[in-house]
Amino acid sequence: MKIYFFYFFFLFIICCDRSDDIGLNIQPNSDRIVLSSYSDTSMFDLSCLKEDSVRTDEVTTNMLGSYLDPLFGSVKSNIALQYRLTSIITGSFGDNVIADSVVLLLPYVGYYGDTSQNINIEVFNLGEDIFIDSLYYSNTNFVSSDILYSGSENVRPNKTVYATGDTLPPHLRIKLDNVFFEQNLLNTDVANLSSNDNFIQHFKGLLIKPSSTVGINSAILYFNLLSEFSKIEVYYKNDSINNIPNIENIKYELVSNLSSARINTFELESNLDTVSFLGVQSMGGYKLKLEFQDIEMIDSLLQGKSINQAILTLHKDESISALNIGQESLYPPHTQISLVRIGENDNIYFLDDYFRGTNYFGGTYNEVDKTYSFNISIYLQDLLSGKYVNKGLHVLPIGSSVNSSRTLFSPKVDLQIVYTEI
């Protein structure tokens, strides 16, 4: 749906110097035009659109979990991940080797949602090759084979873990199937362990997913899979251990590192009725489109004037209904969003203002005013001069592939233009 609103008053006022304006202090001898929206007809057109998939391979943060958003519906994130040998095995793991326990470690770096409830997880043997030098997107579907774990785990993203006699940084620990690793690591053909290339052909990795049978979880967990604590610990016994006093088992580790393919895949609602809301959702969810419907009017207002600064401000929806739906304490808004222009071929491009840096361009959430403001001075001048076709702007999340945030917006938009008579 397109939501219309009218910029119903123009305020021409003499401005004083203000240090809080984005990127440029207002000159004392400048004038300001403030355009603000309040009614239902408009020179602007604001609409909510489904986003395309986003690239999710080798990202800085991998996400796992699910939650039921009261507005955006079901949100799920899966991880496909390669593991590599810590050392090349030239012989064997010993005679009569058996797995004592196998533990998957996933180091926390954050979360989104309610972590007071357990997370229900399934871990599978990845059933297809993944490649570190290939591109993968959020809508990729991976094949899996053996199930290595299905169960519920406590979520403690801020609590250190005491294990194997050590105090370790916060991480999720999942016990995997012993028999699988006995067969595919401890007792496999030694040729599979002679190089990492051979090993990842043999053991392609893990597919980790929120459970599809237990029901929806209440959070998305963020992990650093490049951490030294991102690994699979395989504890095993063999005949020789019986001759070593005070040794119960031996440990071998499989690790994820910069050479490991690491991919997020997302499952989101794709057919939402966007008539009733304006929202931006990460993970390739939803975006806003903002169009200038009457650019000629703005151009006429600025005849004989030089633009010093143009600030576009978007307002988070603070209505009672939105706050109830939004559950902000659990699902806070994006810390930062961005604006991009739509070209003639419908490709998107950064604004020239963007390249001036965040301090100039803006886009960071103002927790006091509940707004996001952007300095679009260069873009507006180029738009008025005819350099760009007026096809509008997209409002997008920053870091869409590494966070699960979403933000609801009010129809209100402000445009403040500071100018000098010429």
Overall description:
The chain has six helices and 27 strands. The protein starts with a strand and ends with a strand. The protein is mostly beta strands and 422 residues long. The chain has helices spanning 178-186, 196-202, 295-301, 320-326, 358-361, 377-385; strands at residues 2-5, 7-14, 31-37, 44-50, 62-69, 73-81, 84-85, 98-113, 119-126, 144-153, 161-163, 166-168, 171-175, 206-210, 219-223, 231-237, 250-255, 262-268, 279-281, 286-292, 305-316, 337-342, 348-350, 362-366, 371-375, 393-397, 406-421. Strands 5, 6, 7, 8, 9, 10, 13, 14, 15, 16, 17 and 18 form a twelve-stranded antiparallel sheet that branches. It is elongated and about 90 Å long.
Low-confidence stretches: 1-29
Strand content: 35-45%
Overall pLDDT: 87
Please tally the β strands and state the result: 27
Overall shape:
elongated
Can you give the helix content as a percent range? 10-25%
Distance between the termini: 41 Å
Number of discrete helical segments? 6
The main β sheet shows up as:
12 strands, antiparallel
Class inferred from helices and paired strands: mainly beta
Radius of gyration: 27 Å
Write the layout of secondary structure elements.
Blueprint: E1 2-5, E2 7-14, E3 31-37, E4 44-50, E5 62-69, E6 73-81, E7 84-85, E8 98-113, E9 119-126, E10 144-153, E11 161-163, E12 166-168, E13 171-175, H1 178-186, H2 196-202, E14 206-210, E15 219-223, E16 231-237, E17 250-255, E18 262-268, E19 279-281, E20 286-292, H3 295-301, E21 305-316, H4 320-326, E22 337-342, E23 348-350, H5 358-361, E24 362-366, E25 371-375, H6 377-385, E26 393-397, E27 406-421
